[in-house]
Amino acid sequence: MTTPLLDVMGLSRRFGELAAVDDVSFTAEAGRIVSLIGPNGAGKSTIFNLLTGYLPLSRGSVSFRGRRIDGMNTCRIAELGIARAFQIARPFRGLSVRDNVKVGALFGNRDNRGLGVVDEALALAGLTELADRPAAELTIGQLRKLELGRAFAARPHLLLADEPLAGLVPAESEEILASLKALAARGAGVLLVEHDMPAVMKVSDRVVVLEAGRLIAAGRPEEVNRDPRVIEAYLGQEAP
Ligand SMILES: Nc1ncnc2c1ncn2[C@@H]1O[C@H](COP(=O)(O)OP(=O)(O)OP(=O)(O)O)[C@@H](O)[C@H]1O
Predict the structure, then answer these.
(1) What is the pLDDT of residue 115?
(2) CB contact at 8 A, 190 and 151
């Protein structure tokens, strides 16, 4: 069996008495999109914070490309090739789109520096036409693309995308999904946290479902979609 790109085992994080993430295990593979879904408070953002070294684990292990990364700091983890795209972009507003994306290239995967990285990231994120525009002039949809472009410029082996579709109109969502698929087609893994269930079901190779910190189901979209535990977890919420 080949080593998965990301191998999360028994991941746990407590905040005082609260088990925000409780013994969660899953993998992510190169070239695949894996979505982490679950109702509000399920632990999705906490998992991103644990994987990126922003928060220390209470228990468990995280291996990336065959080496343990739990306990490493955020900079080291970024250098090894995990990039994170936040829901709320905070660009350098006075800089152009191109220069913001260039900044992303400075902080990324150390194996993959080189000419063309910025242009490639701009193209992949659908930003080529906007490259000379000041970031301060962008719409929400364009800012979301910039956030992805900045992450793409890091040439990640794994992208953690945090609610990239939130607040977007369908046409914008389609463009973002196309960018994520294009990144995966180039061989990167994508870990997606997203509340837009039709989009998740359409774009994901695999879906991991969390509820109150625990993993309750994992599998192909059509499998988790009909899993009674998943349906129950979403009762009263938008059904997946
Ligand atoms: N720094 C913190 N201190 C204390 N509790 C926290 C902290 N961060 C998260 N939590 C709690 O941990 C649980 C999981 O939160 P988390 O933000 O990971 O959920 P989520 O699945 O990302 O939710 P949402 O979909 O609303 O973003 C929640 O009960 C939350 O209140």
Answers:
(1) 62
(2) no
Quickly tell me which residue has 């970024």 as its tokens.
78
Q: What is the largest CA-CA distance in the chain?
A: 50
User: Does 13 sit in the ligand 1 pocket, CB within 6 Å?
Assistant: no
Instruction: Extract the tokens encoding 38.
Output: 């679950």
| Lookup result for tokens 């990039």 | 83
Atom of ligand 1 nearest to the CA of 42: 21
ipTM of the shown complex: 0.96
The pLDDT tens digits for 166-214 are 999 999 999 999 999 999 999 999 999 999 999 999 999 999 999 999 9
Which class is 6-233 in CATH? alpha beta
Q: Pairing between strand 206-211 and 33-37?
A: parallel
- Which atom of ligand 1 has the smallest separation from the CA of 21? 14
State both tokens at 160.
């953690």
Domain boundaries of the chain, sorted by first residue: 6-233
Measured CA distances, 233 to 104, 189, 191, 210, 240 (Å) = 37, 27, 21, 9, 10
Cα separation, 83 vs 189, in Å, equals: 11
How many angstroms separate the alpha carbon of residue 229 from the centre of ligand 1?
Answer: 21
2 within ligand 1 shell (Cβ under 6 A) = no
pLDDT at 113: 60
